[in-house]
Write a structure and sequence with these properties.
The chain is mainly alpha-helical. It has a domain at 2-94. Helices cover 72% and strands 5% of the residues. The protein is built from 6 helices and 2 strands, in the order ββαααααα. A two-stranded antiparallel ribbon has the order 1-2. A hairpin with a 6-residue loop joins strand 1 (2-5) and strand 2 (12-15). The radius of gyration is 29 Å and the shape is elongated. Residues 1-19 have a biased composition (Polar residues). The chain crosses the membrane at residues 131-151. This is DUF883 domain-containing protein. It comes from Prochlorococcus marinus (strain MIT 9313).
Amino acid sequence: MESENSASGDQQTQVNTDPSRPADPSELRFRERFESLLPTIQEYWPDLAWDTLEATRGSLDEMVRVISLHSGLTSHGVRDQLEDLFQIAGDRTRNLADSLEPLEKQLEQLLDELNSTLRPRIERPVRQRPLLAVAMAAGIGVLIGVIFAGGRRS
């Protein structure tokens, strides 16, 4: 058991951090997303100290208990609000993933198109004049080396 102060410093809350207790599915989902939900929970209940929230270690039941003690709300009401926050965060994540999917497909098509058009244009001259290609690459390498080494000599 840990003792954490609230933001006001007046009241102490005992937080049970026993990880051996079996958890229900909502408890497991809450633990998985606990770190990302902490800032949102802090926005909803700003009078709770960050350390007090972290001391619950992702336990939904402990979070509900701590918030209900400090806010005066019923534990059922707090649980409903936390589950709503969790649902909103999940919806935002799904919406973001859905909006990125078309962009990913478009990027893949552009890369395939670039590969099919640009590669032959680069490979053809290299295959026709390999010595010239090697000499150009070496010349460019020497030029870049001189530019970067020139700044170190002073």
